[in-house]
Amino acid sequence: MSDLVTGRTGDWEVVIGLEVHAQVSSNAKLFSGASASFGSAPNENVSLVDAAMPGMLPVINRECVYQAIRTGLGLKAQINLTSVFDRKNYFYADLPQGYQISQFKDPIVGEGSLRIVMADGSTRDIGIERLHLEQDAGKSMHDQHPTKSYIDLNRTGVALMEIVSRPDMRSAAEAAAYVRKLRSILRYLGTCDGNMEEGSLRADVNVSVRRPGGPLGTRTETKNLNSLRFIQAAIDYEVARQIEIIEDGGAIDQETRLFDTATGTTRTMRSKEDAHDYRYFPDPDLLPMIVTQDEVDALASALPELPDDIRDRLMGEYGLSAYDASVITEERDTARYYEAASDGRDRKLVANWMTVELFGALNKSGKSLENCPISPEKLGELVGLISDGTISGRIAKDVFADMFETGKGAAAIVDEKGLKQVSDSGAIEALIDQVLAANQDKVDDYRGGKDKLFGFFVGQVMKESGGQANPGMVNQILRSKLDGA
Amino acid sequence: MSDLLGLNAVAAREALDKKAISAVELTTAYLGAAEATAGLNNYVALTADHALAMAAESDKRIATGAAGLLEGLPIGVKDLFCTKGISSTACSNILKGFVPPYESTVTANLWAAGGVMLGKLNCDEFAMGSGNETSAYGPAINPWQGKDKVDLVPGGSSGGSASAVAARSALLATGTDTGGSIRQPAAFCGVVGLKPTYGRCSRWGIVAFASSLDQAGPFTRTVADNALMMTAMASHDAKDSTSTQTPLQDLIGAVGDGVKGMKIGVPKEYVMDGMDSEVVTLWEQGQAWLRDAGAELIDVSLPHTKYALPAYYIIAPAEASSNLARYDGVRYGMRVDAETLDGMYEATRAAGFGEEVQRRIMIGTYVLSAGYYDAYYLKAQKVRRLIKGDFDAAFQTVDALLTPATPSAAFPVGRKIDDPVTNFLNDVFTVPANLAGLPGIAVPGGVTSDGLPLGLQVLGRPFDEASLYRVAGVLEQAAGFTMTPARMAGGAA
Fold it and tell me: Mapping DSSP to helix (H, G, I), strand (E, B) and coil, where does residue A469 land?
């Protein structure tokens, strides 16, 4: 168990469960027709229902339900044909109804699982406990006026999926891998844009520590983490804090904590004693939500191929390494790029060029695949030129750099700059004769037993050819001339 | 025509179509009646200009032969309905000054049918009460008086609606019924009131009290008027998730269909201690009228009836405690400033809500709280299913049920207000229908020895309002109820 943490008194096992809030990709909110778009002026996307005007009633947005079902299917989870919306009651200025409509006892999606891939290529299945739909709250701004708070209700009523994992993760790295994989699946499905900076995806992290194999420890919940880095930092901090308290003879309080992004530490938000009594009860404005098996089947049959399936295919059919396959399938766009670029080409070679050269160049230039100057077809064309011997791998790197710079096609650049590999045996022979004549002393040394000079002759010939001579032919002709004479 | 106020809705429609009267004349007469009976305090806002403008439009449509079902008929609206551009407060201080930018579906339906809006009618605050005594506008008064001339309550919560229809200051009125708030005031004021099947009228735009029980319905002078108004009120509404798509029956036609061959159940549990003997006598009289008209009377049992009231007084406050959370001083209505957000909530809600509303919010919060939910709310929901089961079983053998509408006639203003439990007992015969979602109608059947009206209640199967109108039509005819209240506009007949 390499994930154990060593304290002063021995080893500790870390137990992590995550509650991820993912904003449903939809045009309209969960129970009102108002727009769910991001970045509008304050209170621009607020309907009478969102503002909880007297007599207003919620009406379910069926598309949000379908998005939740798609996500459930993507998590290989149980879809509940009957689910119930409950009211979670509490007072806050950015919660106009005085309650959040959520699903408490009967969520739309039950148990499922999600496979994470670690850096060493090993995999682990993390249990999903449930997924339910709920309304987002609005936003309170306390820094706009010296004595007043401003309220923006644009987010009020936007549909969220709360996805609750089992406490199956054992390290911060696994938690990060879980969120990365979940985000990947959501993006493949198109059910959440996964944009953590805009708050479309945020996580509450439940952490406890215990002696390996011992009973579960008391957990803390750290709320509202909106980056992978913060998730890992909050876990690392909590693990260290909890181990220290226990090793000093103390006990962990079950409480809700906040993460301070400036200091990388967590602090108490509210203790168990102060926990809200949400007085959940079924929302009488809404009937139990019924979906039919036919609806679920139709959604299932229209589901896109998911990253695990693509990864298996890339490894099985194309022979890619576990690492390359994981990197390529993490994002739907990357996988699509790869499929287009490698169509009809050497699949492994394309994977190499993508993961090394293309990702390297994108990283260096700060660009993303979305605005990549090299289209998948052009990358495929470049690899094609390598495969058919038109250019060597070394020349290809120069061509690639040129393509990335100018966006031109590989063949065009090769033509334009005359980079075509020389495979004409007469021309190569002439070059070799020239090199051997100019280095007669070394030819004599070679023939006298200095075998290692062979590489020198190859290098000289390639240099004379401007790198364009076919290296295989140079080798073959040179050997026959030196050894055969 | 001199006696404009004497026309019932069906007669007024005929007179309007024949151009014997104009909508403006009729509306003017009702506005005058409302002024003349202002002492009854049944209006909280009279919208005279608006009414006359609508009436003028009605006259134009009548002239072009485009009259709607309710064309030109003056209607009062319970203040629980949101009416666009017109103050809508649920008779609560917390909504004082609130003017909605939208129109409730039910009132929109009425205006689309040609109805003329007279104004907003008094009711119990947030419809919580049985005597219209919890209103922030003060109590509405029953136009009927006993021999001692003491002011009586009109019932509640739709007390203003019943009072106005009885006093002839509204020809028709809307009400809402959560535990009897249409049927009990109708009985107290000697008018006809229907609580439709849950889901029959849209709840959109009606200030919510208890969402799973609330249902809008009509107050009218006659059964035929009631069927007419109901036909215009009801609609499927995509904006209300609990709104039904079941087609509406021919209600207007059902009124005269009689009860020959119908099986009418008489539930033995609809008696209680302290029940007025005159109520029992009227109930027996009602059974005789139906038997004489060709119905078969059958004794039935609804064994869980006695649990209905306690279950209701858990479920309704539970939902109310959540529904009324939105009145927080943040966005509209009253706000009492304080140092902190919680302080502002407390000050606003303490000042804005009356005593009865506060009581129910506290009860509702309690029964939903951790540790009590199972014992109260969940148990009450189980009781609710048992009560529904009782009715389902009864309706296997009978087509409708006949019961008293209330355990007594109207009581004096102020008599019961200090004793909430006694007040709650007013709803004993009406609450079960709300818990089961069934339609119920109250029809005047006679008067007490003191000269106060008493009503009979008919309950029916879900979405079978037509059977209620058949039975109610027979009862109305047999009762021949022609008495009018002392404090009626235009003087007693």
Answer: strand
